[in-house]
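Dear colleagues,

For the upcoming journal club I promised to circulate an example of a predicted protein-ligand complex. I picked one with adenosine-5'-triphosphate because it came up in last month's discussion. The inputs are reproduced below in full, followed by the predicted structure.
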Amino acid sequence: MPKKKRKIITGLDIGTTKVCAIIGEPDPHTRDIKVLGLGSNPSRGLKRGMVIDIDDTVESIRQAVYKAEEQAQISIKDVFIGLSGEHISSFNSSGVVEVTNPVRGVSRTDIARAIEKAKQLTTPFDREIIHCIPQEFVCDGQSGIRNPLDISCSRLEVRMHIVTAAITSAQNIIRCVQQAGFRVRGLLLQSLASSLALLSEEEKDLGILLVDIGGGTTDIALFYDGSVRFTTAIPFGGDNITNDIKLGIRVPMYDAENLKKKYGRALASSVDPEETVEIKTRLNNNPLKINRHYLAEIIQARVEEILLLAKERLEKNGLLEHSGAGIVLTGGSALLDGIIELSEKIFELPVRLGTPRGLKGISSAVTSPIYATGIGLVIYGNSDNYFPRLRPRNLFAWLMDVFRRFIDWEVFGQSWPPTNELG
Ligand SMILES: Nc1ncnc2c1ncn2[C@@H]1O[C@H](COP(=O)(O)OP(=O)(O)OP(=O)(O)O)[C@@H](O)[C@H]1O
Ligand SMILES: [Mg+2]
C-alpha cells in the first residue's frame, strides 16, 4: 500500500523581538498536534509589526525556519503567518438583505448576500479585508441566531467583525517570507492565532479578554457569546519597558533587558524599598548598585500605561463588562514578575497567564506564552476551513480572495456554514 502523505503545518510568527517557526503534525485520527520542531531567532528588521528592513527580516525568517527544520528533520515549503501592528484596523459591521423566498426560509445565497453587504461598508482603496468573522444573525428583529439557514423570515441581518490591513504593510511581510524561500499558505491576525492556542470555547462564550504583550505591540482581542467582538493593537510592549530602564538607570539596552527579566517586578509596592542588587554592565567593570524598588517603579509605570490604554479602549466601546471569564495575559512580557497582580488591580477581573496547552511532542519547550501565536498558527492550519491550493502568480490578490471566500467561521465564529460554500 502506498504510504500516505504526511500533513505538516508550519506556523511562522514574525514578531518584533523574535521570529519563531513551529512545525507541527496532526495525528490523523485524534487530530492532536505533535510539535516536531521549534526554531527561534532574534527579529531584526521589524518595528511594531511593520517591515523596516527586508534583508534583515528575510535572514531572521531563514534562520528560524532552518532551526525548526533541523529539529524536526524535515524540510518545509509552506507557512502560515501572523499579522499585527498599527496598520491593522478592525470594526464591527452589519449587512441587511430581503430574503428571496421568506416562506421557504433563508438560503445560502441570502446569507452570502448579507455578508457581502456587510463587507461593502467603508473599505478604503489602500486597505484589504483579512478577516470577516460572522458573529450572529438577526431574522426579522430576532437576534442571537447562530445558523439562519431555512429559518422563515423576510429580513436577514448579519453582524460581523471585519479586520483590515494596509495593503503595503501586509505585502511587505509576504514578500519577506517569499524571499526567504517559503510560500504563504495563510495569514491571520496574531491575536486571533494566539486565541486558538489559549482560550476554551466556554471562556469565549462567557466573555474573555486576550492581551498579548509582545516586544513592540500589545494585541487585544475580546470574545463573548462564542465569537470575536473586538480587536485592537496598542503600539507599546516589552521593548518600551526595557528602553525606560535604559534611560532611567542609565545602562545599555542589553543590561536593561537582563535587569528587567532577572530583577524586574511590575508591582513596586511588593518590593522592599531598601533592597538593592548589584550588576556588572557592559559599560564598565565596576558593579552597579541598583535599587529594586526604583526598577519596579519604572516597569510599573509603563505596564500601567499599556494596560490602562487597553482598558480605556474597551470602556470607550462599552465592552469591559463582557469579560465575564476575566483576562488572559500572554506574549513574552506576560512573564514579567507581578504583572498578573497588577492587571487584576487595574481591571478588577481575574487574570491568568496564557500558556499554550494540549500539545504533544516537544511540548515542554513550547508551553511558554512567547510561543502562543506560533502554536495558534499551526492550529489554524489544521482547521477544516482551510484547504485552498496555491496559485503561482499574484499571490497577494489570491490570498485576499481566499480570505474573502473562506471566512473564518469555523475557527472564530459559529460552526456553520462551511465558508467555501458562500459567495
Ligand atoms: N521573563 C521575562 N520577563 C519579562 N519580560 C520578558 C521575559 N521574557 C521575555 N520578555 C519580554 O517579552 C518581549 C518579547 O515577547 P514576544 O516574544 O511575545 O514578542 P514578539 O512576538 O517578538 O513581539 P510582537 O508580538 O510585539 O511583535 C520582550 O520585550 C522581552 O523582553
Ligand atoms: Mg508576538
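Two points we might discuss: The first strand starts at residue 9 and ends at 14. The chain has a mean pLDDT of 87.

See you all on Thursday,
B. R.
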